[in-house]
Specification:
Length: 313
């Protein structure tokens, strides 16, 4: 009897652990709707993902402003970018997409978020995809309803400690056999229901205060800017912190878009090199990632898409 009781207790503990740790694989559509972005020279720029509108008549590219901007400029947009798509034969095709004219004026159908501190830009690429429809491209996009609203974040108790996926092209790398990006994982590190203020400044020396964003703890690298950040499916957690199995699971919501990867520069050594009579002191530097990323909330993506919808762009 005692042995049976011990077995029963162990079984209950295992079930409880499974309920707390249970998660499902990521939806493959999310992987296939994530695209590689490069500039005119072919140099790798970053990541973007495709989302339809709420009535499924248009498709939008979502990425960061800095991904489609010239290097070291505060959002001086490139005239043109290239989107990398895979074909049904697992080949790779780069499709040109215009952002602005020669004077630097953004085209209709392109909408940078009006808040200059929000690193999000959305492009209506429906006509471009239609033009390449016969090229046998594997075209998939995310449903607009997956963009998590403020109410979803609150009602589903999505917050610090929740596990997430990040899909993108670190350093521009991809699986060239399947022509797909890489899926990495991480954890939400700050409160998703509060504004974010940081002690650091961005690359343009601007204060990062009271922005609609949150921090994730994840192993991410340059090239993943513009990546979708997705909630790992889990059982619903009630306000009393208990898991409610009967209510089912929270699915692959898009929580936001990855913008910045924190870097810091440090001297790793100083080397004196003698060359004939002259002496050179060389400082070698390295950029270290501290495994933290800044994510702008999906509600901001909705705002951009809704603007383009209202203006029929």
């Amino acid at each position: 009897m005692k042995n049976r009781l011990i077995v029963l207790v162990i079984y209950i503990i295992i079930i409880d652990l499974c309920n707390n740790c249970y998660s499902m694989p990521i939806d493959k559509t999310i992987i296939d709707s994530t695209v590689l972005i490069s500039d005119e020279s072919g140099k790798i720029s970053g990541t973007g993902f495709l989302v339809n509108n709420d009535i499924k008549t248009r498709v939008y590219l979502v990425t960061n402003k800095h991904v489609v901007s010239h290097i070291n400029t505060c959002y001086k947009y490139r005239e043109k970018i290239f989107l990398g798509f895979k074909t049904h034969q697992r080949e790779w095709l780069n499709i040109p997409v215009k952002i602005c004219d020669s004077s630097g004026t953004v085209l209709s159908g392109v909408y940078p978020h009006p808040n200059n501190m929000v690193d999000i830009i959305v492009l209506n690429i429906s006509d471009i995809l239609n033009a390449y429809f016969n090229k046998n491209i594997k075209m998939l996009w995310l449903d607009y309803s997956l963009l998590a609203t403020t109410n979803v974040i609150k009602n589903e108790s999505i917050n610090i400690g929740d596990d997430i996926f990040i899909i993108g092209y670190p350093k521009g790398y991809r699986n060239i056999y399947s022509q797909t990006p890489f899926v990495r994982d991480g954890t939400i590190a700050t409160n998703t229901e509060e504004l974010l203020s940081l002690e650091i400044k961005d690359e343009f020396n601007r204060e990062m205060k009271n922005i609609n964003a949150f921090i994730i703890d994840a192993n991410i690298f340059p090239g993943m800017s513009g990546s979708p950040v997705i909630l790992k499916p889990r059982f619903i957690i009630e306000k009393n912190k208990f898991i409610n199995i009967e209510r089912g699971m929270v699915g692959n919501y898009i929580l936001g878009i990855l913008s910045h990867v924190w870097l810091y520069k440090k001297t790793i050594d100083k080397v004196n090199i003698e060359e004939t009579i002259k002496y050179y002191k060389i400082e070698r530097f390295t950029n270290d990632e501290i495994a933290l990323g800044i994510v702008f909330n999906a509600q901001l993506i909705r705002e951009c898409i809704e603007y383009l919808e209202r203006n029929n762009n």
